[in-house]
Amino acid sequence: MSTFIFGHKNPDTDTVVSSIALSYLLNEEGKNTIPKVLGHINQETAFVLNYFGVTPPDYLNDTKVRIKDIKYNKRAFINEQDSIYNAFNFMQKQNITAIPLVDSKKQLKGLVTLKEIAKYLINGNKEEIDTTYDNILASINGTTCLKFDDNIVGRAMVASYQSKTFQEEVKLTSKDILIVGDRYKIIEYALKSKVKLIILTGSHVLPLKLYKLAQKNKVNVIISSHNSLDTATKIILSNKIISININTKPIMVHNRDYRTDFISLAHKIGHTNYPVVNSKMECLGLIKVTSIDNYTPQDVILVDHNSLSQSAIGIEEANIVEIIDHHNLANSSTTTPINFHCMPVGCTSTIIYNMFKDRKVTIPKHIAGLMLSAILSDTLIFKSPTTTEDDIFAATKLAKLAKVKIDDYAYLMFKASSSVKGLTPRDLINQDFKTYSIGNASLGISQVITMDFEEIKANMDEYIKTLDEIKSTNYLCVVLFITDIYQNGSYVIYNSNSKNIIAEAFDLDNIEEGTFIPELVSRKKQMLPSILEVMNKRV
Hints:
The longest helix is centred in the N-terminal third of the chain and has 16 residues, at about 15-30. The chain is built from 19 helices and 23 strands. Helix 1 runs antiparallel to helix 12 (about 365-380), helix 11 (about 350-360) packs antiparallel against helix 12 and helix 12 runs antiparallel to helix 13. The chain has a 6-stranded parallel beta sheet with strand order 3-2-1-16-17-18. It folds into 4 domains: about 5-65 and about 300-415, inorganic pyrophosphatase (n-terminal core) (Alpha-Beta Complex); about 70-120 and about 245-290, CBS-domain; about 125-240, HprK N-terminal domain-like (Udp-n-acetylmuramoylalanyl-d-glutamate--2,6- Diaminopimelate Ligase, Chain: A, domain 1); about 425-535, DHHA2 domain (Diaminopimelate Epimerase, Chain A, domain 1, Roll). The protein is α/β, with parallel strands linked by helices.
């Protein structure tokens, strides 16, 4: 199983780049990893990927445990044309009490239980046979004498009368199956009547004369080592499994279904066994309720975040094997020790650059370009107070490997990402929106890097309305910062009743929607700590 690498929801450039770069590094070391994203890729990141010719990672909806991750019985199904005998033995061997039935294309056709098999053996018609020649051979442990038909359909009977009485009282037809020992007059009568099948019991064989008659009249013949009574008892087991009362519309589960949904279904329905199918309705096996705790979680590596609230849906069901981040410690927890690499630098890609150097893995041009882009984005071309000497050093080295000039490339990158035309207020807010927990409440902060504030200002009322709608979903405060790196500051827009919080957080006497706050560019070191300090007093 591959290990998924991904960053936080609403991915920014560092999140996407770190996933790609780390995956490349680990795969060069022989690991099997796949970079993923948890949301839509923004304009800046799209420009960066396109500039360096890198395909965007695939979208990952969640890391919840699915049926496919549970160790269910992937061999537990049988063809609907197979015999009751084979089905029963297979169920015993697999230690299951029910078995799905499939056709030749593995399409699910029904489900049969041991209970239904028992009912059939007790109450079913002991004479009617609808099966194949080979099924009969297997069920009575017989040997082939003559075979003319693959399918055997007819009425089974034992030659229990005296020969004369039998010939006078019993009219044989081509639909009869005769179970008989060494009673050759009855056998001759049966052959002349062209019965469907004769089963010779007690390991008796046909005399040459009768053998030739059987050949001439094309009568199937099987030799059984059992006596007539045992053979008659066992032949009913040769009937096709579909002969009994099967459930033709069983409750099934898809291999992509969530484990949690399966648990809820099992509690509601109360069954023990459920067929597993794929999207083509092909049967993959049988899952038992007792198997729900026997599963393999998805291995994941988190980059650019360590807060579970910012991670994938179902992250608590995944196996976190490593975290690489540059943010404050949040509420992550694991059941086993992991590699946790956290450094107070401006960008996760700076940490990954150091990992390349420490492990002596060559950084190719496209990976260097991606990591440079992430560092320039997260540090706002080194203007953010989160910037460290490590970030500047790494960016300088990466620029040489990527063969670009930092100032020229940064201008192109930010220009490509700064346009807000065509984006709805919600789209823009969601581009880089993060949630932070404060007691039972939450703080939401979105940061947008753009030089088009006038476009946003012209639609200010819609932005405030959208922030108010987000705030109503259990947020105490929701804020949008529009950062202009060339003016070295941010405009602030907040939900309607958060004016006092923002004013106190940034020590502003006169504040209104769209106020510009000089030198405010870092969410991690400036925006978040200032607002949290005020909110902690109020919760």
